[in-house]
Q: What sequence folds into this?
């Protein structure tokens, strides 16, 4: 049976982000000198980030799915334990002891999608910690190690990216609070340039686009976001 390829999923994402980065550079050049240059560049940075963040969320889902597809033995083991616990609590140990799921190593992709989410949605994770936890529970050791290799800073970056994407998409007060809190959490670490200060005033992002287009050392925040997304996907997809 043909299995899904994490390396192809990784490479497709990297190609897409590289095209986005090239588009961003070309568009900035095109906006130069126009009357609305500042506002146009802010909107551009926001939309490029949003497109990339949506793709980033999708590729994290696709990679996890691919690893379960390659070797579903750990996934089936976890489901068997869950089924036993449910049956045991409802009917008792005798019934629980008779629950045995077949030790399937490979499950067809179409069948696996239904098993992972009968509603047909992408696999989503509440945060990076949950993603790593799900990898521990459902992936065989050599695959889950990729997720466990994520540094604490990379995990904070994943969470900040998700919160920023959600705020752009929904513009809610709760989304704003989550975004500002997650950005503050990046302070002092690997992604300090992406952070906001600890005080309420410093931490407030009045314009997401202006925040994303801001530069340091010739590189904008949106550029660093996209490049870091590539780094994380490279780690997980290698």
A:
């Amino acid at each position: 049976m043909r299995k899904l390829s994490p390396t192809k999923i990784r490479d497709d994402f990297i190609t897409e982000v590289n095209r986005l980065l090239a588009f961003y550079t070309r568009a900035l050049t095109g906006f130069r000198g126009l009357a609305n240059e500042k506002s146009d560049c802010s909107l551009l940075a926001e939309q490029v980030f949003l497109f990339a963040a949506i793709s980033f969320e999708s590729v994290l889902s696709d990679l996890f799915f691919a690893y379960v597809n390659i070797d579903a033995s750990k996934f089936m083991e976890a489901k068997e334990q869950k089924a036993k616990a449910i049956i045991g609590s409802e009917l008792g140990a005798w019934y629980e002891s008779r629950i045995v799921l077949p030790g399937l190593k490979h499950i067809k992709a179409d069948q696996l999608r239904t098993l992972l989410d009968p509603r047909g949605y992408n696999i989503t994770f509440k945060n990076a910690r949950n993603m790593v936890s799900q990898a521990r529970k459902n992936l065989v050791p050599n695959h889950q190690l990729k997720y466990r290799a994520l540094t604490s800073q990379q995990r904070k970056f994943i969470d900040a990216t998700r919160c920023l994407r959600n705020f752009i998409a929904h513009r809610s007060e709760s989304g704003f609070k989550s975004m500002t809190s997650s950005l503050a959490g990046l302070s002092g670490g690997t992604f300090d340039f992406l952070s906001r200060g600890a005080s309420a005033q410093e931490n407030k992002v009045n314009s997401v686009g202006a925040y994303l287009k801001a530069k340091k050392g010739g590189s904008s925040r949106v550029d660093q976001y996209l490049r870091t997304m590539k780094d994380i996907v490279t780690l997980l997809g290698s």
